[in-house]
């Protein structure tokens, strides 16, 4: 605060604080909520009954829902692609659906662009 009797040049200018980006803060998975939970919640044991799998996956999704890096985790699993487990709130089957939709949308966009260019 500048007091009326202080000359302007004596006033200290404090530069604004820069918030580091997530990339600068470290890898996204360091902030993942699941790092504090049992890994078995996110990956199926062998020969798991369907009812148990569905219950486990729903519990894993509840953990994902409160995670600050859920989107980064999901994108990682889609780009790898991760073939097993719950990542970013999606099961392997759900990720396959998302990837198929993305491929279909990309194909449609490319077709539309070719039609406009030929136009």
UniProtKB/TrEMBL annotation:
Top-level taxon in the UniProt lineage: Bacteria
PROSITE patterns associated with the record: 4FE4S_WBL
Transmembrane segments: none
Post-translational modification: Upon Fe-S cluster removal intramolecular disulfide bonds are formed.
GO molecular function: 4 iron, 4 sulfur cluster binding; dinitrosyl-iron complex binding; DNA binding; metal ion binding; protein-disulfide reductase [NAD(P)H] activity
Co-factor: note: Binds 1 [4Fe-4S] cluster per subunit. Following nitrosylation of the [4Fe-4S] cluster binds 1 [4Fe-8(NO)] cluster per subunit.
Cofactor dependence: [4Fe-4S] cluster
Region (Disordered), start-end ranges: 1-30
Key words of the record: 4Fe-4S, Cytoplasm, Disulfide bond, DNA-binding, Iron, Iron-sulfur, Metal-binding, Transcription, Transcription regulation
This protein's record includes keyword Protein biosynthesis: no
Localization per record: Cytoplasm
Domain 4Fe-4S Wbl-type: 33-97
PANTHER family: TRANSCRIPTIONAL REGULATOR WHID-RELATED (PTHR38839)
Family: Belongs to the WhiB family.
Stated name of the protein: Transcriptional regulator WhiB
Species whose genome carries this gene: Streptomyces rimosus subsp. rimosus (strain ATCC 10970 / DSM 40260 / JCM 4667 / NRRL 2234)
């Amino acid at each position: 605060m500048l007091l009326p009797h202080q000359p302007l040049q004596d006033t200290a200018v404090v530069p604004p604080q820069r918030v580091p980006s997530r990339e600068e803060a470290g890898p996204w998975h360091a902030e993942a909520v699941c790092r504090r939970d049992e890994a078995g919640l996110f990956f199926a044991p062998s020969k798991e009954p369907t009812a148990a799998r569905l219950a486990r996956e729903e519990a894993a999704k509840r953990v994902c829902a409160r995670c600050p890096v859920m989107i980064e985790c999901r994108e990682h699993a889609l780009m790898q692609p991760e073939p097993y487990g719950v990542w970013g709130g999606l099961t392997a089957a759900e990720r396959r659906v998302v990837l198929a939709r993305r491929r279909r949308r990309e194909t449609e966009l490319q077709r539309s662009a070719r039609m406009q260019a030929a136009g």
